[in-house]
Specification:
The protein contains twelve helices and nine strands. The protein is of the alpha/beta class.
Length: 300
Amino acid sequence: MKSLLSALIAAWLVLPAYADEAKASDFIRVDEDAQAARLQTGITHYEKAGTKVDLIGAIHIADAAYYKALGDKFTAYDAVLYEMVGDDDAATKAAPAAKPGAKKPDLSGLHQVYSLAAKFLGLTGQMESIDYTRKNFIHADVTLEQFQALQKEKGESILKMAEKASEGKKEPDTAKLMQAMLSGNSNGMKLEIIHSLGGADDQIAAFAGESVIIGDRNAKCMEVLDGQLAKGEKHLAIFYGAAHFPDMEKRLLAKGFKKSSHEWVTAWDVPKQKPAAAPAAPVVPPAPAAPAAPVKKKAA
């Protein structure tokens, strides 16, 4: 159960969709108070000589409002570089159905995992919610053949990465998670795993540079970025899983970019169940007063 859960957590933040300099930035966090826990991803802004690059973090399943907010922001960019292991036609293959009832692309492999997890948690999938056919969207990832060859060369696997990322980290309470799953309590499930997701960028950053899933794909994205900059584009976004960004920030800083600002977007907004109010104490009516003793008259 724990191995499967770790793999899912890694998948939602890192795995690809198929078809201030002294301190590293945080790109995903949990903002929590008494009313709710909010899983948030960052939009981090960098500048260099009049050119702006934004790292827009994402997770692969989230609230529908989250993807709507990101979609609204995409219109402002000259180019949005996106992740998707596959060829340059992957966007067309992955595009949402044009109208209700139209046939959607077949979901296989990891897409089925995302779809199942989204259904359990009452969320929606990134692939179904983002329009990858936008004119300013640029494919910035390796092909499937390259990905498989690199993984084979390095002896890398998804499960190994998930296990390494979870070493020494607090796991969700399995009993509470199972109880929430069996009772259909999607908010309860999200509350049990939200903190594991919120620290995933730090967990993965330690070995990102040597991995195919992070390091090699980030290197490819930087190549595409360089090509767009050479064309004279001035306002660009990189739309990748949030756990890619500790490594990607280092690469941007090495190119001379400076971090200018940062904002948060809520991916999961999970209300907490309010504790039941304690029943009011029963009102006990006061005991009736004892009747007054009769007054005896003295004899004349």
